[in-house]
Design a protein that fits this description.
Layout lengths: L1 H25 L8 H13 L4 E5 L3 E7 L7 E7 L26 H17 L7 E7 L8 H8 L10 E11 L3 E3 L2 E4 L3 E8 L3 E2 L9 H12 L1 H4 L8 E11 L5 E2 L2 E10 L2 H21 L3 E7 L5 E3 L1 H15 L4 E3 L10 H4 L4 E9 L20 H18 L3
Parallel strand pairs: 3-4, 3-5, 5-16, 6-15
Antiparallel strand pairs: 1-2, 2-4, 6-16, 7-14, 8-12, 8-13, 9-11, 10-12
Helix pairs in contact: 1-3, 1-10, 3-10, 5-7, 8-10
């Protein structure tokens, strides 16, 4: 049976993919700088007998695995390849050797799993009709996001996939398990940069000043109305300010200028655009009404991630068939962001979570921390399930 063949191949390739994961973990590279990572991926694909193209969005690698009747249907599988600017605090033998850079978000796992999928599908080319496009994507961690660049470069054309799958490590979920959520899943993410200008002076003489700190406090409180009073309560949204900094202030000095930095996240693209306008108008109005001036800049980030309902529900059922119903869970909405969302805005997409935690082994650290690691048995689940989903989705071609 197909399932048993995939499981057997995944088991056979586990040690090889573990070695690949450890190599990638030792030599992480930052977004838009994944030169050696891209070369390594290309070399492995070539070693597996898979033709591939380098240089997509800088350092990305694209490959196509053809089954029987390769034009019948095409689907895409995506893995991100970049790392984070974090210094690893670990005693493992595969600890990062690139100082200040770490695979703290599991992209080494994603890449290794997709290489495992590549090897499995190559062995099973007579088991499916159609083609599978492999996308090894750079720069997920940094705006504008490698996905947006790849789409502009035509990654979803020639040939055009009808669906795309992606997976992401999830430390809270025990290794061997996966999670799905159809519909709204992850938020858009925009960065807010606000400069409030007033007139500084002595703290004991506020009547001679225009206090930008006071303006900033009103602005922070006022902008919360965008979420609490202006938007549809059925649409999740978060507005958070994480940084306030004044220029030249002290206990008895009112500064000339205050800078605020924050994030705005939601799950509706139409409302997102309206909120941007409302925030800028409100901030500028509050500052002006108090005698000051406000510069409001929005660094537009990733859109919200929508998992196609039909594709994702089908994928969940297939995962239950492959792993057992007890190993497949429902996921809650997340207000974090992912540039896989760009694909989900273009075509039916399914982005699911791969369990990587193991409390008994002490593997519990969250992503984006300097102690993050995974139970490497997750590679077995990751490459096996993604291969299963790819072939089964191709079999569903109309």
């Amino acid at each position: 049976m197909l399932k048993e063949k995939i499981q057997s191949l995944a088991d056979e390739y586990l040690s090889e993919m573990t070695a690949i994961r450890r190599h990638l973990h030792q030599y992480p590279e930052l977004s838009f700088h994944e030169v050696e990572t891209g070369k390594f991926i290309s070399e492995k694909l070539t070693e597996f007998g898979i033709e591939n193209e380098q240089g997509w969005a800088g350092n990305g690698v694209i490959a196509l695995i053809k089954g029987k009747n390769p034009t019948r249907k095409v689907i895409a599988l995506r893995a991100d390849i970049d790392a984070l600017p974090i210094t690893e605090d670990s005693a493992v033998p595969y600890k990062s050797r690139n100082e200040g850079i770490m695979h703290a978000c599991g992209h080494d796992v994603h890449t290794s799993c997709l290489l495992g999928v590549a090897k499995i599908l190559t062995k099973l080319q007579n088991e499916f009709e159609g083609s599978v496009k492999l996308i090894f994507q750079p720069a997920e961690e940094k705006l504008p996001g490698g996905a947006s660049i790849l789409i502009k470069e035509g990654v979803l054309k020639n040939p055009s996939p009808t669906a795309i799958f992606g997976q992401h490590v999830h430390p809270p979920l025990e290794v061997g398990k996966v999670g799905f959520r159809p519909g709204m899943y992850m938020a858009s993410a925009d960065e807010l940069y606000i400069t409030i200008k007033g007139k500084g002076g002595h703290g004991a003489l506020p009547h001679d000043c225009i206090d930008p700190i006071l303006i900033a406090s009103h602005l922070i409180i006022g902008l919360q109305q965008i979420v609490s009073r202006y938007m549809d309560p059925t649409i999740p949204a978060v507005l958070t300010f994480g940084k306030i900094n004044s220029t030249g202030g002290a206990t008895n000095i009112i500064p000339n200028e205050v800078k605020l930095e924050g994030t705005f996240r939601t799950m509706n693209e139409e409302w997102r655009e309206k909120a941007h306008q409302q925030m800028a108008t409100m901030a500028e109005g509050i500052a002006s009404s108090m005698g000051g001036f406000c510069e409001f800049h929005i660094e537009k980030g990733y859109p919200f991630l929508h998992n196609d309902e039909v594709l994702t529900k089908k994928a969940k059922l297939l995962a239950e068939e492959y792993l057992g119903k007890e190993n497949v869970v429902d996921l809650p909405i997340r207000m974090t962001a992912e540039d896989f969302a760009f694909y989900s805005q273009q075509m039916p997409a399914c982005f699911y979570r791969l369990g990587t935690g193991n409390v008994a082994k002490g593997i519990t650290s969250s992503v984006h921390t300097n102690t993050f690691d995974v139970d490497e048995d997750c590679l077995l689940t990751g490459m096996g399930l993604m291969s299963w989903l790819a072939i089964k989705e191709l079999k569903n071609a109309h």
